[in-house]
Amino acid sequence: MSNYLRVALRLLHFIGLVLGLGAATLLDLMLFKRRKEPLTDDMVATVEMFSKVVFFGLALLWISGVGFLLHYAQFDPQKLANPKILAKIVIVFILSINGFFIHSLVLPHLRASVGWPSLAQLNRGRRWLFCSIGAVSAVSWYAPLLLGAVPQLNFVVPTLTILTGYAIILSLAMLAAIVSLLPQHAPQNRLDMIGAR
């Protein structure tokens, strides 16, 4: 029974990771590629659809993750001492908070910005925030995948070391996002944007 439960949890965890990581990656690539194009209703609808897939994948990660913790507590308690588990929980928690900002800030902004490039109507602080949200999403989806793919870290590398490496990579990703995504000059209004063409 324990083996079947573990296989079921792994399958659920894998599905959640594939859905969340895949949709988040496609979403990031699409927004980056079209960052200078005016948003359309179809583009925003696509973003909202992918966001729902990401949310579903994240929900599956939490369900399967809690299931793993309960399974370990019942059948394999020594695994709860693995520092990598706590690091993954912290990263997925950060990913969840970031998802809240995406749904409460980014998606409403995109819907209200149809006809404009996605960052055109934002001040510098808001652009920094939105670029940072995108960087957190990209890094935080790949971090659990990498941690799960490297069993050599089990019971060897402390949680703080893993999270420090994660924080460094996240900081570099934020910097890269800000440099690459922020336009030098945003149009003041739609007429200026049309005239610039």
Structural account:
The chain is mainly alpha-helical and about 200 residues long. The chain has helices spanning about 1-35, 40-75, 85-110, 125-150, 160-180, 190-195. Helix 3 (about 85-110) runs antiparallel to helix 4 (about 125-150) and helix 3 (about 85-110) runs parallel beside helix 5 (about 160-180). The longest helix has about 35 residues, at about 40-75. The N and C termini lie far apart (about 65 Å).
Architecture blueprint of SSEs:
Elements: H1 2-33, H2 41-75, H3 83-112, H4 124-149, H5 159-181, H6 190-196
TL;DR?
The protein has 197 residues and is mostly helical. The chain has helices spanning 2-33, 41-75, 83-112, 124-149, 159-181, 190-196.
The number of helical segments is 6
* Residues in helix, %: over 70%
Overall body shape: elongated
Cα separation of the termini: 65 Å
Oligomerization state: single chain
Class based on secondary structure composition and strand pairing: mainly alpha
Give the H and E element order. Answer: HHHHHH
Q: Any idea what the radius of gyration is?
A: 19 Å
Compute the number of strand runs.
0
Largest sheet: none
* Poorly predicted spans: 184-197
Task: Report the sheet-strand fraction.
Answer: under 5%
Overall mean pLDDT stands at 86
Which terms summarize this structure?
mainly alpha; disordered C terminus
